[in-house]
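Input.
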Amino acid sequence: MPKILITAAGSYGDVAPYTGVGARLRAAGHEVALATHDAYAPLVRAAGLEFRPLPADPRTARPTAGREERGQEEATQETPPTGGNRALMRQAAAFIHRLGDGLAEAARPDTELLLLSATTAPLGRQIAEAMGIPSLDLPLVPNAPTGDFAPVVSGGRSLGRWGNRTAGRLALRVIDRLYAEATRDLRARLGLPPGSPRTVRRRTEAAAPPVLYGFSEVLVPRPADWRPGLEVVGNWWPHHSPDAQLPSAIEDFLSSGPLPVLIGFGSMASGEGERLSSLAVRALRRAKVRGILQSGWAQLATEPADDDILTIGEVPHALLHPRMAAVVHHCGAGTAAAGLRAGVPTVPVPVTADQPFWAAHLTALGAATAPIPFGDLASPDAESRLAAALARATTDPALRTHATRAAHRLAAEDGAGAVVAAVGRLAP
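Output.
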């Protein structure tokens, strides 16, 4: 069995799915290490994988004032920088440069196969070339150009088939620019001849290697104009122990009344906890539903005296979401899939990057209310809009029916199994 190194960088949602992939590979007999940020070492080790550190935890790299914090997988898939985006793009490029050094350290001489997230792939390909070993791209979002839809970071608005494909190719060139300096220095460090990210990417595309996408066709059907080898295999779910249980405080709250609504924004909205917490509490009361606030990077919280609202920290989606009447979240790829997997309606509040894309697809599926863009939560009618969405999500039977049907379809998929099979074909 080959010694496998999985590399993933960014926020929790950019990293956690690969713990499930790694656990399945380990169960199949492979030796697996996962290289990511120190903050996620407990997740990696809990999955039975070897942890290897990567530098530059994005939680410590704040964007410019007034902009929401985001995971690096999102930051490295931005639209072309203009005006206020330039500082963010410089920060992303600096992050990527440090990431290249970390990946070179993590890929030890006995590594025989690299599995790469979207954030680490442009650099990981250089390492695979230098070591003479195979690699496999495992993106969480559909990042190959297609006429079916515009790049996922463009906000979900179609530009027509020609426009969508053109915008998709432009998005790849933006990523090439972000990785240019890091790629140059990494290739020099590895003793490789000079080569730009665009040159290496085009050479890779010409070889038409397999790419496995870790999302479900329940939400996004595979584009018909994708080349053979680009496969949508289903979601990769974060690993958690089979005997894991919800904390007793949550169980006690759940048993004390009707099903609550979960509200959380994951790694989004850092520094806005006080405002968002107040808004969430008012909307929950106006909708006459109980609620759970998941703290996240926004640090949502409520007063201990609020008997009908509970504040919690990090809890596996697989344990918590099925116990909810509905979920309110930012619609990152993993969170959107987790709510659908649980068969519960969603109130989408997309913030940035690919989140409007997933929010629109959840709504089109009939499993979510109309999205409320995060910026609209600062508007005068935010409380009434959020309360109305909560009321509909918890009372409209059509939303739960569509979500339940989607959950049954997701349960029949085995995304991690597809990775195990692909590794079997690639293994030296």
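The domain at 248-411 is CATH 3.40.50.2000 (Rossmann fold).
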